[in-house]
Amino acid sequence: MKAQRNCYVYVYNGYSDWEPALAIFGLNNFTDIRVVPFSLDGRPVTSGGNVSVQPQQSLEQAIAADIDLLIIPGGTTIASSSEHEALLPLLRKQLDSGQLLAAICDATAFLGNHGLLDQVPHTGNDAQVLQMMAPAYKGAAHYINQPSVTGGNLITAAGTAMVPFTKEIYTSLGLLDKKELAFWFGFFDTAGATLKFSHVPPLPFFYRSYEVNMAGMLPLVRTATLEMYRQAVGAGLEVSGPVQWHYHQFDGNPDTIFRLDIGLPVTAPAPVPAPYKCETLPAFDCISATHEGAWDKLGDTYGKLIGAMQVLGIQMSGYNREQYFQYDFNQPDQNITNVQIGVIKP
Questions:
Q1: Mean pLDDT along residues 291-310
Q2: In CA terms, which of 44, 190, 281, 313 is 20 to 30 Å from 196?
Q3: Are residues 39 and 173 in the same domain?
Q4: How far apart are CA 332 and CA 293, in angstroms?
Q5: Domain GyrI-like small molecule binding: where (predicted)?
Q6: pLDDT value, residue 82
Q7: Residue 193 within any structural domain of the chain
Q8: Is 151 exposed, middle or buried, given 0-12, 13-18 or 19+ CB atoms closer than 10 A?
Q9: Residues 57-82, buried b or exposed e (16+ Cβ, 10 A)?
Q10: How far apart are the C-alpha atoms of 284 and 321, rounded to whole Å?
């Protein structure tokens, strides 16, 4: 059985708490990687933001561990205090073993002053600042003027580059194929802007409403769609998109009765007989994601999206849409469904 991967984070008095925060939050909440803060002696420390931190281990324990990712944040003393030199055996062990070492801000100066940047591509707060803070630094030929750089198994970053630093970590660990993590991180990573708020314009929609619970919804999966296509053709409507299901105040409880609108986008609203409606729906603010595969796994996609939204403090409107771009009842793994979760924009 493969051992659980881990991430050790060095914490010390005055460390810059924001620098590793994004990376370790994502690791702890959206992956199975265990985050382990450690200090020199295992005793509590106070971060630069005056946050008291209780480490889980000491440096001695960390040296004895098999570490997949070691993060060294910057801070007020990392490049100037000799107490941190006790870390050097651990850092060299990490690099020699081929495991990831990630240093940010003044921690790059600490590495540079002890020869760990001399032969590897790296970055820092600034080339001249790095030379000034690390008099023994001899790696200027390998300095790259970018927010964050990966050279072999060493990741370095400027102190202002928390997001690029995090992205290099996730990329090096092969984590960005995890949809939940990628969605959440997408809100911070402006360079990969596929995950963002969407403003859906007003939609001419031909539909029928149902009051159902989860059990009552299931028989509609095939019958309602066929009915709507037949009625649309009979009414002379021009269909302009795939079938959609709109959920009003559905809370995920199988017993909750909620309103479900099943219908088709059309080019223009028109009079239709009851129980059908054809009207232009108002514009819709949402966060969307594409679910590929069987519908019995849609709950997983919703759970991941809603979890990420709760983390970010995004308020849901209670109105969600599903657009069925492709569906195959014989090969449900070929289904492509666009999930749109309505949000209340601040």
A1: 81
A2: 281
A3: yes
A4: 6
A5: 234-341
A6: 96
A7: no
A8: middle
A9: bebeebbeeebbbbbbbbbebbbeee
A10: 10
CA distance 230 to 245: 17
Q: Residue 300: is its pLDDT beyond 80?
A: no
Instruction: State the average pLDDT for the chain.
Output: 93
Contact yes or no for 79/53 (Cβ under 8 A): no
**CATH number reported for the structural domain that contains residue 19 in this entry:** 3.40.50.880
3-state secondary structure of 217: helix
Q: What are phi and psi of 311, to 5 degrees?
A: -60, -40
**Domain end point (choices 117, 143, 178):** 178
The strand pair at 315-326 and 244-248 is best described as antiparallel
Strand partners, 308: none
How many whole angstroms from its chain centre is CA 29?
Answer: 10
Give yes or no for residue 187 having a pLDDT over 80: no
| pTM of the entire predicted model | 0.62
240-284 pLDDT per residue, tens: 999 999 999 988 788 999 999 999 999 999 999 999 999 999 999
